[in-house]
Amino acid sequence: MSQGTLYIVATPIGNREDITLRALRILDEVDIIAAEDTRKTGMLLKHYNIKKPLTSYFEHNEKRKTPALIQDLQSGKNIALVSEAGTPTISDPGYRLVHAALQEEIPVVPIPGVCAAITALSVSGLPVHRFAFEGFLPPKTGKRKNFLKKLVNEERTLIFYESPHRITAALEDIREVFGDRPAVLTRELTKMHEEHMQGSISTIIESLAEKSLKGEFTLVVAGNSPAKKHS
Ligand code: SAM
């Protein structure tokens, strides 16, 4: 029997219409959907009237579940991997499964779609010809500042994911290490309360002080301009 295919399927980061026709077809055709959050994916599938067996695949079971999913693929089953939102493997589970599948010469097919980092960058108004995605910053200030110090001379536009309860502290550390650079803080992209806060990091910190810090944030920060480069 021929092997199945592993599909890496991007799903919306908010607005349910942000899913491709191909993604919907693949989700409808596969044998199993491995989902980071079965409840959320279940709601998305229900919205599109897709009925498929779901199995959970998230940070705390991915090591244990990967061999079973590889066996399913080897027995000819087609599997779609989806994360809670956006593109699987990007600050989300999936790397381990993709790596294991490729080692076993199982076909891995991307079904591209939304990614919060690229969505935020596209409206940032900051240089986009070269950029660096840095994912989540370390949660504690000491490690965060050390991490940022290694990026201080980076000329590419920088993209960070951040949680609502750390966003102000992270911005303060970024200002301290990088200086008061231009930045854009996006909140709740594609959702009802979508917001883009533009300006210097100080301006953004000020505007955050007047708001509720709920929702999901992606931060885009200008790279170091060569003229102002630190040694
Ligand atoms: N795999 C996802 C992707 O492709 O964007 C990212 C998953 S990561 C666990 C979740 C983080 O992405 C959030 O903490 C936030 O920083 C960012 N994010 C996700 N949805 C967002 C949204 N609607 N608006 C702004 N940022 C978002």
Descriptive account of the structure:
The chain has two domains: 6-111, Tetrapyrrole methylase, N-terminal domain (Cobalt-precorrin-4 Transmethylase, domain 1, 3-Layer(aba) Sandwich), CATH 3.40.1010; 116-228, Methyltransferase, Cobalt-precorrin-4 Transmethylase, Domain 2 (2-Layer Sandwich), CATH 3.30.950. 34% of the residues lie in helices and 21% in strands. The protein has eight helices and ten strands. It has helices spanning 21-29, 38-47, 62-74, 95-103, 116-122, 141-149, 167-178, 201-209, and strands spanning 6-9, 32-35, 54-56, 79-82, 108-111, 131-136, 157-162, 182-187, 195-200, 217-221. The strands form two sheets. Strands 3-2-4-1-5 form a five-stranded parallel beta sheet, with helices on both faces. Strands 6-7-10-8-9 form a five-stranded mixed beta sheet. α3 packs parallel to α4 (95-103), α6 packs parallel to α7 (167-178) and α7 (167-178) runs antiparallel to α8 (201-209). The relative contact order is 0.15. The structure holds S-adenosylmethionine. The site of S-adenosylmethionine (SAM) has 23 residues, from α5, β7 and β10. S-adenosylmethionine is lined by residues 13-14, 83, 85-87, 90-92, 115-117, 161-163, 186, 188-191, 216-218.
Short description, anyone?
The chain is an alpha/beta fold. The chain has helices spanning 21-29, 38-47, 62-74, 95-103, 116-122, 141-149, 167-178, 201-209, and strands spanning 6-9, 32-35, 54-56, 79-82, 108-111, 131-136, 157-162, 182-187, 195-200, 217-221.
Keywords:
five-stranded parallel beta sheet, binds S-adenosylmethionine, 34% helix, Cobalt-precorrin-4 Transmethylase, domain 1, 21% strand, 231 residues, alpha/beta, Methyltransferase, Cobalt-precorrin-4 Transmethylase, Domain 2, single chain, five-stranded mixed beta sheet
